[in-house]
Amino acid sequence: MKTGKLLEIIILAIIAIGIISLLIWGFSTNWGKKVNAYEVKESCEEACFNKNYEDFCVKERAVWFNDGSGVSDITCSGLVMGGRLNLDWSCRTELCE
Q1: Model pTM?
Q2: Residue 82 phi/psi, 5° resolution?
Q3: Which stretches does DSSP call E strand in the chain?
Q4: Which of 91, 11, 5 is nearest to 44 (CA)?
Q5: CA 82, 84, 86, 91 torsion-angle sign
Q6: Phi, psi at residue 43, to the nearest 5°?
Q7: Are 61 and 54 in contact (CB under 8 A)?
């Protein structure tokens, strides 16, 4: 086997290992998206408790769930309607309508 061919095989193997490593990292970390559903729920509940119209009805958030799904540009009011965070409906009717 020629030295040039061996070097080519080694380089291709290194590239393949890099690509496989990147795929494993991406799927295991949801491509870098942090699961933040709990923090967003807490923030929305605080806005509701404090009757903060701006934070509950206007401020847009991005929410990422454990199953890898997510929603961006949504308000706490919108999350109430989606039902995934089990937020209190009364805040939506009291603050946003």
Answers
A1: 0.60
A2: -70, -30
A3: 61-64, 70-74
A4: 91
A5: negative
A6: -65, -45
A7: no
DSSP 8-state class, residue 34: P
Structure tokens at 35: 């699961």
Q: What are phi and psi of 84, to 5 degrees?
A: -80, -20
Q: What is the mean pLDDT of the chain?
A: 84
Phi, psi dihedral angles at 61 (to 5 degrees): -130, 165
Residue 50's pLDDT band, with cuts at 50, 70 and 90, is very high
Q: Which residue has the higher pLDDT, 20 or 71?
A: 20
pLDDT tens digits for range 51-61: 999 998 999 99
Residue 58: per-residue pLDDT: 92
